[in-house]
Model the fold of this input.
Amino acid sequence: MRPFAYTSAAGIAEAVRLAAAGPVTFLAGGTNLVDLMRAGVERPEHVVDISRLPLDGIEDLPGGGLRIGALARNARVAGDARVRARFPLLAQAIMNGASPQLRNRATAGGNLLQRTRCGYFYDRAAACNKRVPGAGCDALDGYNRMHAILGAGDNCIAVHPSDMCVALAALDATVNVAGRDAAVPLAGFHRLPGDSPHVETVLEPGELITSIDLPEMPGRSVYLKVRDRATYAFALVSAAVLVRVEEGRVAAARIALGGVAHKPWRAYAAERLLTGEPVRDDLLRQAAEAAVAGARPREHNAFKPELATRLVRRALKVTTS
Ligand code: SF4
Done:
């Protein structure tokens, strides 16, 4: 462990002021950051502990929405009666992620900022553009079973590991950031790798997430996840699907995929295909195929497009039946 400065922020204003004064790394639940520090992947000079800030509330918003504080623990969010009743998709996704111990500790804001579990990223002997910009990417010709099939280039094919973020993307959540007037749509919060895979979100250095807003989103929803074991495993592919059917037609559809891209992947083309159409089996099949259009698998994950197609189709059947 390398030495670093540590400050426990007394308030939001102090945390923001410290961040503006120099490079800092915020510590909330620490479930990812501490691992990365132990592995020598993250080497912060100044850790600002924000875990005691008053950002752990869950509040009703006008119009049926909810505001989830950035420091609300994942387990508490998933267990909140309002989340379970009004946003069961989010509760399901959280309960599909990590272990009970991690969910008790991890925070909503930290979940957004968790980093990829690409093995080469954690292995300091491997070439990794995300860890060392310009170093190359050993995953391209390495063991890439867990890696991206959508939105990736030749600089990085890592996937975002979160389940919660996939549900948030489907729910049109927005992210509130201290000092910003406008909230950031979750679907635009994470970046595709492009030429700078080390830059993972649209946050500027030192910006602090304060809360996540969920607008009311009526409809039937389901979160489905395929993984190598029944619990405590990252998704090979996951799907968060919410559909509202009125008089036999799709009035609204939201589809997001996990385990396939550098960010939660909204399948807008599939949503457009469904919206306004009468529910019928061939439409669901076409939409599921559209959800992975343009997929570019690698040597070890050629199964992912078909798996994702089947998962979306199954989720659409569940939500439209
Ligand atoms: Fe690094 Fe991304 Fe390549 Fe993994 S896929 S080795 S995170 S550059």
